[in-house]
Amino acid sequence: MKNLSRVSWLKVLLYIVLTLYAIITLIPFLWALSASFKPLFEIVSGESNFLPKNFTFDNYKQIFLQEPLFLRWLFNSVVIAVSVTVLNLLFNSMAGYALARLRFRGRHFWFLLILAVLAVPAQITLIPTFLILKVFGWLNSYQGMIIPSMVNATFIFMMRQFFINFPKELEEAAALDGLTPFGIFWRIVLPLAKPALAAQAVFVFMGSWNNFLLPVVILFDPEMFTLPLGLNSFKGQYISYWNYIMAASMVFTLPALAIYAFFNRYFIHSVTFTGGKG
Amino acid sequence: MYQLRRQQQKARWKIKEDLPGYLFMLPAILVLGTFVVLPIIWAVFLSLHKVQLLGGIEYEFIGFRNFTRLFEDERVWIALKNTAQYVAIVVPTQTVLALVLAVTLNSGIRGKNWWRILYFLPTVTSSAVLTLIFMWIYNTNGLLNDVLAFLGLPTYNWLGDPAVALKGIMIMNIWSTAPFYMVIYLAALQDIPQTLYEAAELDGANGWQKFIHITIPILKPVTFFVVAMGIIGTFQLFDQSYIFSGGTGGPNNATLTVVLLIYQAVFRNLQMGYAAAIAFLLAVVIITITLIQQRLFGGEKV
What we know:
The complex is a heterodimer.
Chain A: H1 2-36, H2 40-44, H3 58-66, H4 70-101, H5 107-118, H6 122-136, H7 142-146, H8 153-164, H9 169-176, H10 181-192, H11 194-210, H12 213-218, H13 227-237, H14 242-277
Chain B: H1 2-11, H2 15-47, E1 49-54, E2 56-61, H3 65-72, H4 74-105, H5 112-124, H6 127-138, H7 143-150, H8 165-190, H9 194-202, H10 207-218, H11 220-235, H12 239-245, H13 258-267, H14 272-296
Antiparallel strand pairs in B: 1-2
Protein backbone atom coordinates (compact mmCIF):
# COMPACT_ATOMS: atom_id res chain seq x y z
CA MET A 1 0.00 0.00 0.00
CA LYS A 2 2.78 2.36 0.95
CA ASN A 3 4.71 1.38 -2.16
CA LEU A 4 1.68 1.93 -4.37
CA SER A 5 1.18 5.51 -3.23
CA ARG A 6 4.83 6.27 -3.88
CA VAL A 7 4.49 5.02 -7.43
CA SER A 8 1.41 7.11 -8.10
CA TRP A 9 3.12 10.23 -6.73
CA LEU A 10 5.86 9.64 -9.24
CA LYS A 11 3.22 9.35 -11.98
CA VAL A 12 1.68 12.64 -10.91
CA LEU A 13 5.08 14.27 -11.02
CA LEU A 14 5.67 12.90 -14.53
CA TYR A 15 2.35 14.30 -15.75
CA ILE A 16 3.16 17.67 -14.22
CA VAL A 17 6.51 17.74 -16.03
CA LEU A 18 4.88 16.73 -19.31
CA THR A 19 2.12 19.30 -18.96
CA LEU A 20 4.55 22.08 -18.12
CA TYR A 21 6.61 21.24 -21.17
CA ALA A 22 3.50 21.08 -23.33
CA ILE A 23 2.64 24.61 -22.15
CA ILE A 24 6.16 25.79 -22.98
CA THR A 25 5.80 24.25 -26.42
CA LEU A 26 2.40 25.71 -27.16
CA ILE A 27 2.62 29.23 -25.74
CA PRO A 28 4.64 30.80 -28.59
CA PHE A 29 2.22 29.36 -31.17
CA LEU A 30 -0.90 30.37 -29.27
CA TRP A 31 0.52 33.79 -28.61
CA ALA A 32 1.26 34.27 -32.32
CA LEU A 33 -2.12 32.87 -33.34
CA SER A 34 -3.88 35.20 -30.92
CA ALA A 35 -1.88 38.21 -32.18
CA SER A 36 -2.92 37.39 -35.73
CA PHE A 37 -6.57 37.99 -34.73
CA LYS A 38 -5.94 41.20 -32.77
CA PRO A 39 -6.07 44.72 -34.14
CA LEU A 40 -2.80 46.62 -33.80
CA PHE A 41 -4.00 48.92 -30.99
CA GLU A 42 -4.73 45.91 -28.80
CA ILE A 43 -1.27 44.50 -29.45
CA VAL A 44 0.59 47.69 -28.58
CA SER A 45 -1.56 48.36 -25.53
CA GLY A 46 0.83 46.10 -23.63
CA GLU A 47 -1.84 43.88 -22.09
CA SER A 48 -0.89 40.23 -22.20
CA ASN A 49 -4.27 38.66 -22.86
CA PHE A 50 -4.33 35.38 -24.70
CA LEU A 51 -7.84 35.74 -26.08
CA PRO A 52 -8.25 38.73 -28.39
CA LYS A 53 -10.67 41.26 -26.91
CA ASN A 54 -11.44 42.73 -30.32
CA PHE A 55 -11.39 39.62 -32.48
CA THR A 56 -10.80 40.47 -36.14
CA PHE A 57 -9.97 38.88 -39.50
CA ASP A 58 -8.61 42.17 -40.83
CA ASN A 59 -4.97 41.11 -40.58
CA TYR A 60 -5.60 38.13 -42.86
CA LYS A 61 -7.66 40.30 -45.22
CA GLN A 62 -4.82 42.79 -45.30
CA ILE A 63 -2.09 40.31 -46.22
CA PHE A 64 -4.18 38.49 -48.83
CA LEU A 65 -5.98 41.45 -50.42
CA GLN A 66 -3.78 44.50 -49.83
CA GLU A 67 -0.33 42.97 -50.00
CA PRO A 68 -0.02 42.21 -53.73
CA LEU A 69 2.99 39.91 -53.44
CA PHE A 70 1.84 37.65 -50.63
CA LEU A 71 -0.16 35.28 -52.87
CA ARG A 72 2.72 35.27 -55.31
CA TRP A 73 5.15 34.19 -52.55
CA LEU A 74 2.74 31.47 -51.49
CA PHE A 75 2.47 30.34 -55.11
CA ASN A 76 6.28 30.37 -55.57
CA SER A 77 6.79 28.32 -52.43
CA VAL A 78 4.18 25.76 -53.49
CA VAL A 79 5.54 25.45 -57.04
CA ILE A 80 9.11 25.03 -55.82
CA ALA A 81 8.42 22.71 -52.87
CA VAL A 82 6.06 20.46 -54.86
CA SER A 83 8.39 20.20 -57.88
CA VAL A 84 11.42 19.55 -55.69
CA THR A 85 9.52 16.86 -53.78
CA VAL A 86 8.17 15.02 -56.85
CA LEU A 87 11.52 15.09 -58.65
CA ASN A 88 13.40 13.93 -55.55
CA LEU A 89 11.05 11.00 -55.08
CA LEU A 90 11.57 9.91 -58.67
CA PHE A 91 15.30 10.53 -59.09
CA ASN A 92 16.48 9.37 -55.65
CA SER A 93 14.49 6.16 -56.02
CA MET A 94 15.87 5.54 -59.51
CA ALA A 95 19.46 6.03 -58.37
CA GLY A 96 18.90 4.03 -55.18
CA TYR A 97 17.35 1.21 -57.18
CA ALA A 98 20.19 1.15 -59.70
CA LEU A 99 22.77 1.02 -56.90
CA ALA A 100 20.90 -1.74 -55.10
CA ARG A 101 19.81 -3.94 -57.99
CA LEU A 102 21.16 -3.17 -61.45
CA ARG A 103 24.53 -4.54 -62.54
CA PHE A 104 26.57 -1.96 -64.40
CA ARG A 105 30.14 -0.86 -64.77
CA GLY A 106 31.30 1.67 -62.17
CA ARG A 107 28.46 0.92 -59.80
CA HIS A 108 30.82 0.70 -56.86
CA PHE A 109 32.48 3.99 -57.81
CA TRP A 110 29.14 5.84 -57.96
CA PHE A 111 28.10 4.42 -54.63
CA LEU A 112 31.31 5.62 -52.96
CA LEU A 113 30.91 9.02 -54.60
CA ILE A 114 27.43 9.37 -53.13
CA LEU A 115 28.72 8.43 -49.69
CA ALA A 116 31.46 11.06 -50.06
CA VAL A 117 28.93 13.70 -51.14
CA LEU A 118 26.97 13.03 -47.94
CA ALA A 119 29.89 14.29 -45.87
CA VAL A 120 30.43 17.63 -47.64
CA PRO A 121 29.21 20.69 -45.69
CA ALA A 122 26.72 22.81 -47.62
CA GLN A 123 28.65 26.04 -47.02
CA ILE A 124 31.51 24.86 -49.21
CA THR A 125 29.28 24.35 -52.22
CA LEU A 126 27.11 27.42 -51.70
CA ILE A 127 29.26 30.10 -53.35
CA PRO A 128 30.30 28.01 -56.40
CA THR A 129 26.67 26.92 -56.80
CA PHE A 130 25.73 30.59 -56.92
CA LEU A 131 28.39 31.17 -59.61
CA ILE A 132 27.28 28.14 -61.64
CA LEU A 133 23.67 29.30 -61.54
CA LYS A 134 24.88 32.73 -62.67
CA VAL A 135 26.72 31.15 -65.63
CA PHE A 136 23.55 29.23 -66.57
CA GLY A 137 21.48 32.40 -66.18
CA TRP A 138 19.34 30.66 -63.57
CA LEU A 139 19.67 33.16 -60.73
CA ASN A 140 16.34 34.48 -59.52
CA SER A 141 14.39 31.70 -61.28
CA TYR A 142 12.35 28.60 -60.53
CA GLN A 143 14.86 26.30 -62.22
CA GLY A 144 17.62 27.80 -60.09
CA MET A 145 15.69 26.81 -56.98
CA ILE A 146 14.51 23.44 -58.29
CA ILE A 147 17.29 21.84 -60.36
CA PRO A 148 20.16 21.92 -57.81
CA SER A 149 17.79 20.52 -55.17
CA MET A 150 16.04 17.83 -57.20
CA VAL A 151 18.46 15.07 -56.16
CA ASN A 152 19.59 14.36 -52.61
CA ALA A 153 22.46 12.04 -51.71
CA THR A 154 21.03 11.25 -48.27
CA PHE A 155 17.84 9.86 -49.73
CA ILE A 156 19.61 8.01 -52.55
CA PHE A 157 21.50 6.23 -49.80
CA MET A 158 18.29 5.63 -47.84
CA MET A 159 16.48 4.25 -50.90
CA ARG A 160 19.41 1.97 -51.72
CA GLN A 161 19.29 0.49 -48.20
CA PHE A 162 15.56 0.07 -48.59
CA PHE A 163 15.77 -1.70 -51.98
CA ILE A 164 18.60 -3.98 -50.87
CA ASN A 165 16.31 -5.49 -48.23
CA PHE A 166 13.50 -5.84 -50.75
CA PRO A 167 12.34 -9.35 -51.76
CA LYS A 168 13.79 -10.06 -55.19
CA GLU A 169 11.29 -12.68 -56.37
CA LEU A 170 8.66 -10.29 -57.71
CA GLU A 171 11.17 -8.45 -59.87
CA GLU A 172 12.60 -11.71 -61.17
CA ALA A 173 9.14 -12.96 -62.08
CA ALA A 174 8.41 -9.69 -63.85
CA ALA A 175 11.69 -9.91 -65.74
CA LEU A 176 10.76 -13.41 -66.91
CA ASP A 177 7.46 -11.98 -68.14
CA GLY A 178 9.53 -9.68 -70.33
CA LEU A 179 9.20 -6.38 -68.48
CA THR A 180 12.07 -3.90 -69.07
CA PRO A 181 14.05 -2.62 -66.06
CA PHE A 182 12.10 0.63 -66.18
CA GLY A 183 8.80 -1.26 -66.42
CA ILE A 184 9.73 -3.32 -63.37
CA PHE A 185 10.75 -0.20 -61.48
CA TRP A 186 7.64 1.77 -62.39
CA ARG A 187 4.99 -0.94 -62.06
CA ILE A 188 6.34 -3.14 -59.28
CA VAL A 189 9.10 -1.54 -57.25
CA LEU A 190 7.75 1.99 -56.77
CA PRO A 191 4.25 0.95 -55.62
CA LEU A 192 5.81 -1.32 -53.00
CA ALA A 193 8.12 1.46 -51.79
CA LYS A 194 5.27 3.72 -50.64
CA PRO A 195 6.25 3.95 -46.94
CA ALA A 196 9.81 4.98 -47.77
CA LEU A 197 8.51 7.45 -50.36
CA ALA A 198 6.03 8.99 -47.91
CA ALA A 199 8.74 9.61 -45.33
CA GLN A 200 11.02 11.06 -47.97
CA ALA A 201 8.20 13.28 -49.25
CA VAL A 202 7.70 14.85 -45.82
CA PHE A 203 11.40 15.48 -45.26
CA VAL A 204 12.02 16.92 -48.70
CA PHE A 205 8.88 19.04 -48.69
CA MET A 206 9.64 20.46 -45.24
CA GLY A 207 13.25 21.10 -46.21
CA SER A 208 12.27 22.97 -49.34
CA TRP A 209 9.30 24.81 -47.82
CA ASN A 210 11.36 26.05 -44.87
CA ASN A 211 14.66 26.61 -46.71
CA PHE A 212 16.09 30.06 -46.12
CA LEU A 213 19.77 30.06 -47.06
CA LEU A 214 19.53 29.05 -50.74
CA PRO A 215 16.69 31.45 -51.62
CA VAL A 216 18.34 34.32 -49.75
CA VAL A 217 21.41 33.75 -51.90
CA ILE A 218 19.89 33.21 -55.35
CA LEU A 219 16.56 35.09 -55.34
CA PHE A 220 16.66 38.89 -55.35
CA ASP A 221 13.51 40.03 -57.13
CA PRO A 222 10.63 40.30 -54.61
CA GLU A 223 8.33 38.76 -57.26
CA MET A 224 10.40 35.58 -57.13
CA PHE A 225 10.65 35.36 -53.31
CA THR A 226 9.52 32.25 -51.50
CA LEU A 227 7.50 32.66 -48.32
CA PRO A 228 10.44 32.67 -45.86
CA LEU A 229 12.07 35.53 -47.78
CA GLY A 230 8.74 37.23 -48.27
CA LEU A 231 8.11 37.07 -44.55
CA ASN A 232 11.53 38.48 -43.86
CA SER A 233 10.98 41.42 -46.21
CA PHE A 234 7.49 41.79 -44.77
CA LYS A 235 9.13 42.25 -41.40
CA GLY A 236 11.27 45.04 -42.82
CA GLN A 237 8.29 46.74 -44.42
CA TYR A 238 5.82 46.41 -41.53
CA ILE A 239 8.43 46.68 -38.81
CA SER A 240 5.98 47.31 -35.98
CA TYR A 241 2.83 45.78 -37.50
CA TRP A 242 3.13 42.56 -35.55
CA ASN A 243 -0.52 41.76 -36.26
CA TYR A 244 0.21 41.41 -40.02
CA ILE A 245 3.51 39.61 -39.48
CA MET A 246 1.87 37.05 -37.19
CA ALA A 247 -1.05 36.50 -39.59
CA ALA A 248 1.42 35.88 -42.42
CA SER A 249 3.42 33.53 -40.20
CA MET A 250 0.31 31.52 -39.44
CA VAL A 251 -0.60 31.20 -43.14
CA PHE A 252 2.94 30.04 -43.82
CA THR A 253 2.88 27.43 -41.05
CA LEU A 254 -0.43 25.84 -41.99
CA PRO A 255 0.66 23.82 -45.08
CA ALA A 256 3.69 22.39 -43.27
CA LEU A 257 1.51 21.39 -40.32
CA ALA A 258 -1.06 19.79 -42.62
CA ILE A 259 1.60 17.73 -44.39
CA TYR A 260 3.11 16.75 -41.06
CA ALA A 261 -0.25 15.71 -39.60
CA PHE A 262 -1.14 13.76 -42.73
CA PHE A 263 2.11 11.80 -42.95
CA ASN A 264 2.83 11.74 -39.22
CA ARG A 265 2.97 7.96 -38.92
CA TYR A 266 5.49 7.52 -41.73
CA PHE A 267 7.41 10.59 -40.68
CA ILE A 268 8.06 9.41 -37.13
CA HIS A 269 8.84 5.96 -38.44
CA SER A 270 11.56 7.30 -40.70
CA VAL A 271 13.01 9.49 -37.95
CA THR A 272 13.39 6.37 -35.89
CA PHE A 273 14.88 4.70 -38.94
CA THR A 274 17.63 7.30 -39.28
CA GLY A 275 18.21 7.65 -35.57
CA GLY A 276 17.77 4.34 -33.87
CA LYS A 277 19.22 2.06 -36.44
CA GLY A 278 20.94 4.31 -39.00
CA MET B 1 44.79 -16.84 -76.26
CA TYR B 2 41.57 -17.73 -74.48
CA GLN B 3 42.66 -15.58 -71.55
CA LEU B 4 43.24 -12.60 -73.83
CA ARG B 5 39.85 -12.91 -75.47
CA ARG B 6 38.17 -13.03 -72.09
CA GLN B 7 39.94 -9.88 -71.01
CA GLN B 8 38.94 -8.14 -74.20
CA GLN B 9 35.37 -9.12 -73.62
CA LYS B 10 35.53 -7.89 -70.05
CA ALA B 11 36.85 -4.51 -71.09
CA ARG B 12 34.05 -3.91 -73.57
CA TRP B 13 30.97 -2.12 -72.30
CA LYS B 14 27.93 -4.30 -72.39
CA ILE B 15 25.25 -1.97 -73.64
CA LYS B 16 22.44 -4.22 -72.56
CA GLU B 17 23.59 -4.38 -68.95
CA ASP B 18 25.24 -1.02 -68.46
CA LEU B 19 22.74 1.19 -70.24
CA PRO B 20 19.78 0.74 -67.86
CA GLY B 21 22.04 1.34 -64.88
CA TYR B 22 23.31 4.61 -66.31
CA LEU B 23 19.86 5.71 -67.43
CA PHE B 24 18.63 5.24 -63.87
CA MET B 25 21.65 7.05 -62.46
CA LEU B 26 21.73 9.87 -65.00
CA PRO B 27 19.73 12.55 -63.13
CA ALA B 28 21.68 11.90 -59.93
CA ILE B 29 25.04 11.97 -61.70
CA LEU B 30 24.21 15.18 -63.58
CA VAL B 31 22.86 17.07 -60.58
CA LEU B 32 25.40 15.90 -57.99
CA GLY B 33 28.19 16.37 -60.52
CA THR B 34 27.14 19.92 -61.39
CA PHE B 35 26.03 21.13 -57.98
CA VAL B 36 28.24 19.22 -55.54
CA VAL B 37 31.39 17.80 -57.15
CA LEU B 38 32.07 20.71 -59.49
CA PRO B 39 31.40 23.28 -56.71
CA ILE B 40 33.89 21.54 -54.39
CA ILE B 41 36.62 21.80 -57.02
CA TRP B 42 35.59 25.37 -57.79
CA ALA B 43 35.63 26.22 -54.07
CA VAL B 44 39.25 25.08 -53.79
CA PHE B 45 40.08 27.19 -56.84
CA LEU B 46 38.19 30.22 -55.46
CA SER B 47 39.92 30.05 -52.11
CA LEU B 48 43.31 30.50 -53.81
CA HIS B 49 42.21 33.49 -55.88
CA LYS B 50 41.13 37.03 -55.55
CA VAL B 51 37.83 37.23 -57.39
CA GLN B 52 36.85 40.41 -59.17
CA LEU B 53 33.26 40.93 -60.23
CA LEU B 54 33.35 43.64 -62.87
CA GLY B 55 30.52 42.69 -65.19
CA GLY B 56 32.23 39.37 -65.81
CA ILE B 57 34.34 37.46 -63.33
CA GLU B 58 38.13 37.78 -63.17
CA TYR B 59 40.46 35.64 -61.09
CA GLU B 60 43.85 36.64 -59.75
CA PHE B 61 45.97 33.88 -58.19
CA ILE B 62 47.09 34.90 -54.70
CA GLY B 63 48.13 31.57 -53.19
CA PHE B 64 47.19 31.17 -49.55
CA ARG B 65 46.62 34.86 -48.86
CA ASN B 66 42.89 34.32 -48.28
CA PHE B 67 43.78 31.83 -45.58
CA THR B 68 46.45 33.94 -43.87
CA ARG B 69 44.00 36.83 -43.87
CA LEU B 70 41.62 34.73 -41.78
CA PHE B 71 43.95 34.97 -38.82
CA GLU B 72 44.15 38.75 -38.95
CA ASP B 73 40.43 39.35 -39.39
CA GLU B 74 38.88 40.32 -36.09
CA ARG B 75 35.36 39.50 -37.24
CA VAL B 76 36.36 35.91 -38.06
CA TRP B 77 37.38 35.46 -34.44
CA ILE B 78 34.20 37.09 -33.18
CA ALA B 79 32.07 34.86 -35.44
CA LEU B 80 33.99 31.75 -34.39
CA LYS B 81 33.72 32.69 -30.73
CA ASN B 82 29.98 33.37 -30.98
CA THR B 83 29.38 30.16 -32.89
CA ALA B 84 31.52 28.06 -30.52
CA GLN B 85 29.78 29.55 -27.50
CA TYR B 86 26.45 28.81 -29.13
CA VAL B 87 27.41 25.18 -29.84
CA ALA B 88 28.87 24.69 -26.34
CA ILE B 89 25.63 25.75 -24.66
CA VAL B 90 22.96 24.58 -27.10
CA VAL B 91 24.21 21.06 -27.88
CA PRO B 92 24.55 19.74 -24.29
CA THR B 93 21.35 21.44 -23.15
CA GLN B 94 19.19 20.19 -26.00
CA THR B 95 20.68 16.69 -25.70
CA VAL B 96 19.92 16.44 -21.97
CA LEU B 97 16.47 17.95 -22.45
CA ALA B 98 15.73 15.51 -25.28
CA LEU B 99 16.82 12.58 -23.13
CA VAL B 100 14.77 13.71 -20.12
CA LEU B 101 11.67 14.20 -22.26
CA ALA B 102 12.13 10.85 -23.97
CA VAL B 103 12.63 8.96 -20.70
CA THR B 104 9.61 10.71 -19.19
CA LEU B 105 7.47 9.84 -22.21
CA ASN B 106 8.71 6.26 -22.14
CA SER B 107 7.82 5.58 -18.50
CA GLY B 108 4.39 4.13 -19.09
CA ILE B 109 2.58 7.42 -19.63
CA ARG B 110 -0.88 7.54 -21.19
CA GLY B 111 -1.31 9.08 -24.63
CA LYS B 112 2.37 8.89 -25.46
CA ASN B 113 1.75 9.54 -29.15
CA TRP B 114 -0.25 12.70 -28.47
CA TRP B 115 2.44 14.19 -26.28
CA ARG B 116 5.01 13.33 -28.89
CA ILE B 117 3.06 14.95 -31.73
CA LEU B 118 2.48 18.06 -29.62
CA TYR B 119 6.13 18.38 -28.62
CA PHE B 120 7.21 17.93 -32.21
CA LEU B 121 5.37 21.07 -33.40
CA PRO B 122 8.32 23.49 -33.19
CA THR B 123 10.52 21.11 -35.14
CA VAL B 124 8.23 21.12 -38.19
CA THR B 125 7.73 24.88 -38.14
CA SER B 126 10.08 26.90 -40.30
CA SER B 127 12.96 28.75 -38.70
CA ALA B 128 11.78 31.98 -40.36
CA VAL B 129 8.37 31.76 -38.69
CA LEU B 130 9.81 30.72 -35.34
CA THR B 131 12.29 33.57 -35.41
CA LEU B 132 9.56 36.10 -36.15
CA ILE B 133 7.36 34.71 -33.37
CA PHE B 134 10.25 34.89 -30.93
CA MET B 135 11.17 38.43 -31.99
CA TRP B 136 7.61 39.33 -31.15
CA ILE B 137 7.84 37.58 -27.78
CA TYR B 138 11.31 39.03 -27.03
CA ASN B 139 10.04 42.55 -27.67
CA THR B 140 10.94 45.03 -24.91
CA ASN B 141 7.25 45.06 -23.97
CA GLY B 142 6.79 41.48 -25.12
CA LEU B 143 5.41 38.38 -23.49
CA LEU B 144 8.70 37.08 -22.10
CA ASN B 145 9.51 40.28 -20.26
CA ASP B 146 5.93 40.41 -18.93
CA VAL B 147 6.34 36.92 -17.52
CA LEU B 148 9.80 37.70 -16.10
CA ALA B 149 8.49 40.89 -14.48
CA PHE B 150 5.51 39.01 -13.07
CA LEU B 151 7.91 36.51 -11.47
CA GLY B 152 10.04 39.35 -10.13
CA LEU B 153 12.96 38.47 -12.41
CA PRO B 154 15.08 40.97 -14.37
CA THR B 155 13.85 41.89 -17.87
CA TYR B 156 16.07 42.44 -20.88
CA ASN B 157 16.17 44.21 -24.18
CA TRP B 158 16.60 40.75 -25.77
CA LEU B 159 17.21 41.92 -29.32
CA GLY B 160 19.09 45.14 -28.68
CA ASP B 161 21.47 44.23 -25.86
CA PRO B 162 24.70 42.62 -27.12
CA ALA B 163 25.04 40.76 -23.82
CA VAL B 164 21.81 38.76 -24.27
CA ALA B 165 21.02 38.77 -28.03
CA LEU B 166 22.77 35.46 -28.73
CA LYS B 167 21.23 33.91 -25.61
CA GLY B 168 17.82 34.70 -27.03
CA ILE B 169 18.65 32.67 -30.13
CA MET B 170 20.05 29.87 -27.94
CA ILE B 171 16.82 29.59 -25.93
CA MET B 172 14.77 29.48 -29.10
CA ASN B 173 16.90 26.81 -30.74
CA ILE B 174 17.05 24.54 -27.73
CA TRP B 175 13.27 24.77 -27.60
CA SER B 176 12.78 24.01 -31.29
CA THR B 177 15.43 21.30 -31.82
CA ALA B 178 15.25 19.23 -28.63
CA PRO B 179 11.96 17.53 -29.69
CA PHE B 180 13.61 16.19 -32.83
CA TYR B 181 16.28 14.41 -30.80
CA MET B 182 13.65 13.39 -28.26
CA VAL B 183 11.96 11.33 -30.97
CA ILE B 184 15.26 9.66 -31.82
CA TYR B 185 15.91 8.82 -28.15
CA LEU B 186 12.36 7.58 -27.79
CA ALA B 187 12.83 5.12 -30.64
CA ALA B 188 16.08 3.85 -29.14
CA LEU B 189 14.53 3.50 -25.68
CA GLN B 190 11.84 1.27 -27.08
CA ASP B 191 14.48 -1.09 -28.46
CA ILE B 192 16.10 -1.74 -25.06
CA PRO B 193 15.18 -5.28 -23.97
CA GLN B 194 13.05 -5.24 -20.81
CA THR B 195 14.89 -8.31 -19.49
CA LEU B 196 17.92 -6.13 -18.72
CA TYR B 197 15.85 -4.01 -16.34
CA GLU B 198 14.23 -7.06 -14.79
CA ALA B 199 17.63 -8.60 -14.09
CA ALA B 200 18.82 -5.34 -12.49
CA GLU B 201 15.68 -5.23 -10.34
CA LEU B 202 16.44 -8.72 -9.05
CA ASP B 203 19.85 -7.42 -8.05
CA GLY B 204 18.11 -4.67 -6.09
CA ALA B 205 18.76 -1.69 -8.39
CA ASN B 206 16.46 1.33 -8.01
CA GLY B 207 15.13 3.49 -10.80
CA TRP B 208 18.03 5.92 -10.77
CA GLN B 209 20.64 3.14 -10.77
CA LYS B 210 18.91 1.44 -13.69
CA PHE B 211 18.96 4.71 -15.59
CA ILE B 212 22.67 5.35 -14.92
CA HIS B 213 23.95 1.79 -15.37
CA ILE B 214 21.68 0.44 -18.11
CA THR B 215 19.88 3.16 -20.04
CA ILE B 216 22.75 5.65 -20.43
CA PRO B 217 25.40 3.10 -21.55
CA ILE B 218 23.02 1.43 -24.01
CA LEU B 219 22.09 4.79 -25.47
CA LYS B 220 25.72 5.74 -26.03
CA PRO B 221 25.70 5.21 -29.82
CA VAL B 222 22.46 7.20 -30.12
CA THR B 223 23.93 9.96 -27.96
CA PHE B 224 26.92 10.04 -30.28
CA PHE B 225 24.57 10.47 -33.22
CA VAL B 226 22.50 13.16 -31.46
CA VAL B 227 25.56 15.13 -30.37
CA ALA B 228 27.21 14.84 -33.81
CA MET B 229 24.05 16.01 -35.59
CA GLY B 230 23.70 18.77 -33.01
CA ILE B 231 27.24 20.00 -33.56
CA ILE B 232 26.91 19.97 -37.34
CA GLY B 233 23.55 21.76 -37.16
CA THR B 234 24.49 24.42 -34.63
CA PHE B 235 27.79 25.30 -36.30
CA GLN B 236 25.76 26.17 -39.38
CA LEU B 237 23.55 28.67 -37.56
CA PHE B 238 22.36 31.24 -40.07
CA ASP B 239 18.61 31.82 -40.54
CA GLN B 240 17.94 32.97 -36.99
CA SER B 241 20.90 35.33 -36.81
CA TYR B 242 20.12 36.72 -40.24
CA ILE B 243 16.47 37.45 -39.44
CA PHE B 244 17.07 38.68 -35.89
CA SER B 245 19.77 41.12 -36.93
CA GLY B 246 18.51 42.01 -40.42
CA GLY B 247 21.63 40.38 -41.88
CA THR B 248 24.13 42.49 -39.92
CA GLY B 249 25.03 40.13 -37.07
CA GLY B 250 24.32 42.95 -34.64
CA PRO B 251 23.91 44.38 -32.09
CA ASN B 252 27.64 45.01 -32.00
CA ASN B 253 28.44 41.67 -33.76
CA ALA B 254 26.79 39.75 -30.91
CA THR B 255 24.85 37.47 -33.27
CA LEU B 256 27.51 37.24 -35.98
CA THR B 257 27.99 33.57 -36.93
CA VAL B 258 30.44 31.96 -39.32
CA VAL B 259 27.84 31.24 -42.01
CA LEU B 260 26.50 34.78 -41.71
CA LEU B 261 30.07 36.01 -42.16
CA ILE B 262 30.40 33.88 -45.33
CA TYR B 263 27.16 35.39 -46.60
CA GLN B 264 28.38 38.92 -45.86
CA ALA B 265 31.77 38.28 -47.47
CA VAL B 266 30.02 37.23 -50.70
CA PHE B 267 27.12 39.63 -50.93
CA ARG B 268 28.19 42.71 -48.99
CA ASN B 269 31.93 42.81 -49.63
CA LEU B 270 31.96 40.79 -52.89
CA GLN B 271 34.95 38.74 -51.73
CA MET B 272 34.17 35.29 -53.09
CA GLY B 273 37.66 33.89 -52.64
CA TYR B 274 37.84 35.01 -49.04
CA ALA B 275 34.35 33.63 -48.40
CA ALA B 276 35.45 30.26 -49.77
CA ALA B 277 38.41 30.31 -47.37
CA ILE B 278 36.06 30.98 -44.42
CA ALA B 279 33.85 28.10 -45.60
CA PHE B 280 36.86 25.77 -45.56
CA LEU B 281 37.79 26.97 -42.09
CA LEU B 282 34.26 26.14 -40.91
CA ALA B 283 34.38 22.70 -42.54
CA VAL B 284 37.72 21.95 -40.85
CA VAL B 285 36.36 23.05 -37.45
CA ILE B 286 33.22 20.90 -37.81
CA ILE B 287 35.11 17.82 -39.01
CA THR B 288 37.77 18.16 -36.28
CA ILE B 289 35.23 18.49 -33.49
CA THR B 290 33.16 15.60 -34.83
CA LEU B 291 36.29 13.42 -34.90
CA ILE B 292 37.26 14.42 -31.35
CA GLN B 293 33.74 13.67 -30.24
CA GLN B 294 33.93 10.26 -31.90
CA ARG B 295 37.12 9.58 -29.93
CA LEU B 296 35.46 10.62 -26.67
CA PHE B 297 32.63 8.20 -27.34
CA GLY B 298 35.11 5.42 -27.92
CA GLY B 299 34.80 5.46 -31.68
CA GLU B 300 31.55 3.58 -31.60
CA LYS B 301 29.75 3.04 -34.84
CA VAL B 302 26.27 4.41 -35.06
